[in-house]
Amino acid sequence: MPELPEMETYKRLLTEKIIGKPITNVEVNRANSINIPVVKFIEEVKGKQVIRIERSAKHLLFHLNDNKVLLLHLMLGGWMFYGTEAEKPKRTIQVRLSFGDHHLYFIGLRLGYLHLLNFEEANQVLQKLGPEPLASDFTEAKFLQHIEKKRGILKTSLVDQHFISGIGNCYSDEICFSAEIKPMRQIQDLSIDERSKLFKGIREVLQEAIAYGGYMENPLYVGDQITGQFDPRCKVYDREEEPCVRCGNPILREEVSSRKTFFCNVCQH
């Protein structure tokens, strides 16, 4: 599932590709991927321009020039591709926005969605989310105050979008490894020092992942050299039985709250 770094990468790359260009055509192949009747969706979106793209947690907001917003959540298995008809992947396309002879393809939207909303409606969706972990005002002091109220397994807490937004399965494991804490620990049992290390791990892992285009390997467009460059830099995620980069012991995999979880049993405590 795309997490905060993947959606930030999409935002940055798509801003270079589609801002200010008219949406010349709209195709909807799966009505459940949108929130209004297909004919109305096409009428409302066709001919508009995307004037700004924002990211909030795992969402993208495509701001249109009529003050409407296309709110995207890719969910599990969702991704995007931008290119010509000849370049598109051989995959089922749920929604397509055309910009002349180039198109933005929304792929794998079986759980995800692209909803057309006004600004207030979009805000109502996003207000339910926890704080943005990379926001300038989300300081260590605020994090320590925020975590004081939380109970439960650390892994489960990190992927709880109402607690902190944008973190999913991959980065929760990478953050725990960075902080040298086992993901199955109870969050209320962490010491002040461990909580501080957790905050630093959140910031450092997410910032590095953004710098290297996230871990998802599907390129956004032909020649994309950015998307997915963080995948080989993952220390534990999907690294079962590989040697730990810190201590050399094999990385383990366990199920934590029905989620695959990777960690080092020796240097995570």
Descriptive report:
With 269 residues, this protein is α+β, with helices and mostly antiparallel strands. The chain folds into 2 domains: 123 residues, Alpha-Beta Barrel (N-terminal domain of MutM-like DNA repair proteins), CATH 3.20.190.10; 124 residues, Orthogonal Bundle (Helicase, Ruva Protein, domain 3), CATH 1.10.8.50. The chain is 28% helix and 21% strand. The protein contains 7 helices and 10 strands. A 4-stranded antiparallel beta sheet has the order 1-6-7-5. A hairpin with a 2-residue loop joins β2 and β3. The radius of gyration is 20 Å and the shape is globular. Its cofactor is Zn(2+). Belongs to the FPG family. Monomer. InterPro entries: FPG_cat, FPG_Glyclase, FPG_N, H2TH_FPG, Ribosomal_uS13-like_H2TH, Znf_DNA_glyclase/AP_lyase, Znf_FPG/IleRS.
Q: What strand line-up does the widest sheet have?
A: 1-6-7-5
Please, what is the average pLDDT? 97
* Uncertain spans: none
By secondary-structure content and strand pairing, the structural class works out as alpha+beta
Termini Cα gap: 27 Å
Secondary-structure element order, N to C? HEHEEEEEEEHHHHHEE
Number of β-strand runs: 10
Helix content: 25-40%
The tally of domains stands at 2
Strand content: 15-25%
CATH class of the largest domain equals Mainly Alpha
CATH third-level topology of the largest domain: Helicase, Ruva Protein, domain 3
Largest sheet, strands/sense/barrel: 4 strands, antiparallel
Discrete helix count: 7
Q: What general form does the structure show?
A: globular
How big is the Rg? Answer: 20 Å
- CATH architecture assignment of the largest domain: Orthogonal Bundle
EC number: 3.2.2.23, 4.2.99.18
GO molecular function, one term: damaged DNA binding
Keywords: DNA damage, DNA repair, DNA-binding, Glycosidase, Hydrolase, Lyase, Metal-binding, Multifunctional enzyme, Zinc, Zinc-finger
Family: Belongs to the FPG family.
